[in-house]
Amino acid sequence: MPPSADAIAAVTRAHLDHHPAERAKLEPLLAMLATTPEPTNRSTLPAHVTCSAVVINRDQQVLHIHHKATGLTLCPGGHGEETDTSLLATAVREVAEEAGIPPEALCLVPQLLDQPVDIDVNDIDANPDKGEGAHQHYDFRFAFYLADAAMPETALQAEEVTGCEWRPFEQVASPSLRAKLQAAGLDGRPEPVNASVLIHDGVGRYLLHLRDNFDHIWAPGEFSLLGGGAEPGDGTLEDTLRRELAEEAPGLRLGPVEPLTVEWTTGADGLAVPIQTFTACWQGDPEAADLREGVLLHWFRPEDLHRLRLRDSTQQLIHQHTADLALDRARPKAAEPATAGPAGAVVRRAVQEDAAELTRLRLVMLDSAGITPPPGWADQCTAWFSERLNGDGRFAAFVVDVGTGRLVSCAVGQYDHRMPRPGQGPHVGHIASVATDPEHRRQGHARRAVTATRDWLAASGCGQIQLTASPHGEQLYRDLGFSDPTGPIPLTWSAP
Q1: Rg (CA), the chain
Q2: Dist. CA 256–CA 402, nearest whole Å
Q3: Residue 294: exposed, middle, or buried by beta-carbon count in 10 A (0-12, 13-18, 19+)?
Q4: pLDDT tens column, 238-286
Q5: What is the pLDDT of residue 216?
Q6: Are 117 and 180 in contact (CB under 8 A)?
């Protein structure tokens, strides 16, 4: 379905925001759009909308064709068709028809995206053979870069085109287009215009987004990474990513993100799309992300990806990231930053292999309280930790590791759903099993483990975090923002 008059008017007004001096020239266009139901139809007279493609190579040259009927040298372009869903789609189709350059050989210009670089008004002579009197074209010119550095082969439309040439900006045929290209600082080199993020939880799971099954969108009905296309107001691609996340899943709040790779794909309009992929660690609950677009957010392990409708490039990216994380963990602990803590200690999230050490530290804590577990209890505790460290998204332990194979401190966090309550998050968190080896106490290790656990619970949507303090640990927890409960008196029932 062709673009509506309202959609074309919105594009025109956005163009005028950047080029207010052209308002007098384009006011008649806006007036026409207010009264004309089919502005792209060539039978709409005395004026209608056309589109052109401004194809720019790495040498800052623009493709021109020699038009047979008029004898003019122009950028490829023409009238819209019923199958064109946007003005941009008309420009993409016309350059494929007239010059033989397919959509996948082109990509958007970062400075312009899907907005026209120029809108010009052309007086068209009468054409008795087509039954057309003299009229005007409002020509929307869209700029594209070549996706590859190599010049594409052209296959000219013999019935309409007699030849083609590449002209530098200063020799572009249209004066208005020439001026805009010279002022825009375009270099012909593609840059990412989309941003996505590979979200992992640090223990082997990856967050994937099941997209809506609509034909007009990219990758309909597939699992993919979260993200989307840049918009004119975005300052950086990280801004693009965070805006997209706020629109798609406002409850998913990422901490720091890092650039991972740039990959190319094909967009819904057939154009080549370079995507900047970031990576970030998040341990939240997808059900609390408040998904606004798409069908589902879910954690998956790499070994389950073959079961999903997922692009090969995304699957390969996840497997490579998993391998890179494994290599990173295998590096000697001496490679950890020296500033991480006293004597090279680092705080990290516990993995399944830490289960026995977590049990040992829990025994240290119980011993301090004068509690002696029965025989076999330690094995049961290790099995319990191992099970929860193997994919329980609502459980995490943070440990202080000095690289000796023996952990020196830990804190355990887990959270549950809570009944809805105004002003509170969807979960309530609990911190327990805070313990430090006696020989490593009074070095700030417990503070760092508890802080990491508290921050993880808060990032997971916990509006309240509970713990039980011993007299020795009370001041530490108060320093970290914990306070006496308010409201109803908390009471506990224990089975006899």
Answers
A1: 31
A2: 25
A3: middle
A4: 999 999 999 999 999 888 899 999 999 988 889 999 999 999 998 888 9
A5: 79
A6: yes
Q: Say what the alpha-carbon torsion angle 354, 356, 357, 362 is, to the nearest 10 degrees.
A: 120
Show the tokens assigned to 59. 């040498």
272 and 266 Cβ atoms separated by less than 8 Å: yes
Ramachandran angles phi, psi of 57, nearest 5°: -95, 180
- Is the entire prediction scored with pTM above 0.90? no
- Apex CA 165: angle with CA 161 and CA 170, to 5°? 130
C-alpha 489/C-alpha 347 separation (Å) is 35
Whether the upstream peptide bond of residue 46 has omega within 30° of 0, thus cis, is: yes
Contact call for residues 205 and 301 (beta carbons, < 8 A): yes
Tokens of 249: 């899943």
Copy the structure tokens of residue 189: 């080199």
In the block, residue with structure tokens 């503070």: 447
Contact 318, 361 (CB under 8 A): no
8-state DSSP, 89: H
Cβ(237)–Cβ(276) under 8 Å? Answer: yes
Q: Is residue 69 a contact partner of residue 159, using CB atoms and an 8 Å limit? A: no
Whether residue 332 is predicted with pLDDT greater than 60 in this model: the reply is no
| DSSP classification of residue 205 | -
What's the CA gap between 360 and 406, in Å, rounded? 10
What is the model's pLDDT at position 333? 39
Which domains are present in the chain? 5-184 (3.90.79.10), 194-330 (3.90.79.10), 333-479 (3.40.630.30)
Q: How far is CA 75 from the centre of its chain?
A: 34
Query: Whole-angstrom Cα distance, residue 311 to residue 339?
Result: 40
When pLDDT is averaged across residues 108-124 and rounded to a whole number, the result is: 94
Name the token pair of 451.
């802080």
Residue 340 has pLDDT above 60, yes or no: no
Say how many C-beta atoms besides its own lie within 10 A of residue 85's C-beta. Answer: 16
> CA-to-CA distance for 152 and 99, rounded, in angstroms?
10
Query: What six digits make up the tokens of 6?
Result: 């309202």
Give kind and range of the element (H or E) at residue 416.
strand 407-417
Q: How many CB atoms lie within 10 A of CB 162?
A: 12
Residue 171 neighbours by CB distance under 10 Å:
13
